[in-house]
Amino acid sequence: MGGPRVEMPTGRLDGLISLASNVPSNLPDSPFNVEELIAYFERKGMSIEDLVVLSGAHTVGVAHCTSFKDRFLFSADGTVLSQDPSMDPAYATQLVQRCPASPSASTLIVNDIITPTVFDNAYFKNVQAGHGLFHSDEALRSDPRTASLLSSFASSQELFFASWARSFVKLSLVDLKTDPSQGHVRTQCNLRN
């Protein structure tokens, strides 16, 4: 997978309960526009740079078709009536072929069409080319406050990696638990106590 080395502070308290149902309220939604994304990150004490660099996590992973279907308008018979005009037409055609109007819940699309299993700066290049999968990806390209950062990370993997390391550590400190009755320090990072 690759990616930068991130020196994480140790000793943080992990929660005692982990529920998938808690995740949506703790992540920005893919249809968010730039204003909503910035406001969401600022509420967590994060900056615009943190928003853009952490969006680089989309360089790996997959998405369900339902997470980006808002970028297409289908007729009742499943014909594409329109697509997000910011999306590269050839890329949009590929997505519609894989994700018709009523896709299977198990249909997955890679977030990064260039290097889907490598943590690199290809995500930023994809977004610049109109190959951002989510509406939120395109939102970063279309706003001057975020577009310049997107361009910088597309041009320099070293800058992306250095910025990622800083922002990832900062993210790990969001909503940090300090009450020992609310969490515990893992004796092994990959195992619950």
TrEMBL record:
Keywords, alphabetical: Calcium, Disulfide bond, Heme, Iron, Metal-binding, Oxidoreductase, Peroxidase
Record-linked PROSITE patterns: PEROXIDASE_1 (PS00435), PEROXIDASE_4 (PS50873)
Amino-acid positions noted as binding Ca(2+) in the UniProt annotation, renumbered to this chain: 59, 112, 115, 120
GO-annotated molecular function: heme binding; lactoperoxidase activity; metal ion binding
Source organism superkingdom: Eukaryota
Stored Pfam families: peroxidase
Entry-linked InterPro entries: Haem_peroxidase, Haem_peroxidase_sf, Peroxidase_pln, Peroxidases_heam-ligand_BS
One of the GO BP terms on file: response to oxidative stress
Recorded coiled-coil stretches: none
Binding site for heme b: 58
Listed cofactors: Ca(2+); heme b
Family: Belongs to the peroxidase family. Ascorbate peroxidase subfamily.
Official protein name in the record: Plant heme peroxidase family profile domain-containing protein
